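We treat protein structure as text, and this decision shapes the records that our systems exchange. The tokens are whole numbers drawn from a learned vocabulary of local backbone shapes. One such record is reproduced below, unchanged from the form in which we store it:
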Amino acid sequence: MTFSEIKCQPCENLWFRNFMKDPIKLKTVFMGTSRFAATILGELFENNYNIISVYTRPDKKTGRDQKQEKSAVKIEAEKKNVKIYEPEKFDEETVATLKEQDPDLLIVADYGKILPESALKISGFGALNIHTSMLPKFRGPSPVQNALLEGETETGITIILMDENVDTGDILAQVKVVISPDEKYPELLDRMADTSADLLLETLPLWVERKITPRPQEEEKATVCQLIERSDGRIIWTDSAAAIYNRFRAFYPWPGIFTYWEKGGSNLRLKLLKISPAEGIPLAGRSIGEVFEAEEKIAVQTGEGPLVLEEIQLEGKSKSNARDFVNGYPDFIGSVLK
């Protein structure tokens, strides 16, 4: 039964009236993977929502020892002994298993898989997705990173009624989130997880009680962001210091930002683990990418202004603060990073 079919039934329907009185009893399936999603799931548990099952990514091997790692959502679900599904693909068999559970509602948060239209039609109250941007801006898999990359001062949370396309569904609720000037991706995402959980808990009863009218997204304002790759962390020194610092904030801790230092005829990969904007440092006569000392700091000239290096790591070596690195490699000063 779809939500549109429910709306057409008279309120005398006892089944419908029972849901109006106590929406927490809705048979709810939660789909997610990350710590962000686990925070939301934890709040649903805390508020006694009837989570009948959880879908998450399969365990994956990580690290040098290739140990199996559970998703944050799986760990959260195990605390409550909820049935867990870990399908490799959302194929016809997976859809059939979901249908057998006869859910009233699907909630999706950073799951990592695209649901087929056949799955979205199963639950009476539809599938709700929590997206970390003010849709239709930043549709796609990396909205928080892209907000930081573009130096945005605010972003937001949007709850949509999912359709067959990615992040295009009608909007049920939105709230803005202010971004602090030095806030990095993990810090911002943790705050947004708490905000998302609060917004969802406010929205669910209103949605079930038919007090929300979904509104279409404004397609002419839509922007799309892509999946972040390791190579995206490479610094382009002709960019401004502000743009490079935003890249650091967006890609911390993964994939991180890096550059190349030419030494002894080889280009060595250099990770910049901690950087900061520089103020009051004179710029005259320096090449873009040049490393220099000023006011007891190690800095690099960018296309517009300098950046201070605080912690760096040469490939194959341990991380080091910039001053210690220069003590070990005095020829670093005056070199031009690529």
